[in-house]
Task: structure prediction
Amino acid sequence: MTDTAPRPTLEAVAARAGVSRATVSRVVNGGDGVREPLVERVRRAVDELGYVPNQAARSLVTRRHGAVAVVVAEPETRVFADPFFALQLRGISKELTAHDNQLVLLLTEGRDDHARVGRYLAGGHVDGALVFSLHLDDPLPGLIQRAGVPTVFGGRPGWSEGSRDVVYVDSDNRGGAREAVRHLVDLGRTRVAHITGALDQTSAADRLEGYRDVMGDAAPELVVRGDFTPAGGERAMRELLDRCPDVDAVFAANDLTASGALRVLREHGRRVPEDVAVIGFDDMLPVAEQTDPPLTTVRQDIEEMGRLMARLLLRDLDGRSGRGGGDAPAGVVLPTTLVRRASA
Result:
């Protein structure tokens, strides 16, 4: 059996740095009022001794746990199959890591999971929550509100119209969709269809509105419901070809939907873009650059959306704990850009 060296203590750091225990405590817990030369001495002693602050004791001083819950209102099969979620989680993780915060991932498969997430958030385990991929009938917002946890939402919550208390980060879904459909019209396409996303989510509803802004007089059969998945894109494209065999352009609600639509067009011998032009939404490079042909799409900065969500939450938490920061804006909408490739 090997002996384990005792963990260095706060007192040992204080002795090495030649300062009081209280000074070390203020430095390692992020407190104010310590002169910079002393801060440097304490940090040097911490590094030399390999001191790791006790999180429980630190929480008593700072009233912070150094942990943030990331709640994705989707089953794990969807989260781990869709690169959108990987990009958003990467942005969140980078920002939290840069500020020495842990990410606690919570997924919801069904109603029992909603209750579990609500209990966890109400239990005081985390400082705040980042929540995305909400559906309109989702009970999570109510559970989070009752838990009293500071929260930032990814995407405009459909129930938050006019509320200054709801903080969210979104992309210009409607404007991006408008730009995509106008591009198809400018190419001379006259039978422009839309495969929607899941219409119980505001991103899909906004993209449908952007399509209608340009194609307000389009025949109803040119709009087919999808679900943001490749399989949904395949089903919708088959239905669209049955309904409207003369379709000459498709705006798909996301890149995965577009990839499914492209497969069906190829099966039916339709050339892209000669016979049917196709545009997606997201610009997820593992998808958009690997389709045949490469996909014209609307780019939203998914990773930056995640970073900004985390940044706004941390700013809010700092404001609440008297460490600067301040109120976050109610809603931040990031611009989108049309990226032209070979499909349109």
Summary: The radius of gyration is 25 Å. The first helix runs from residue 10 to 17.
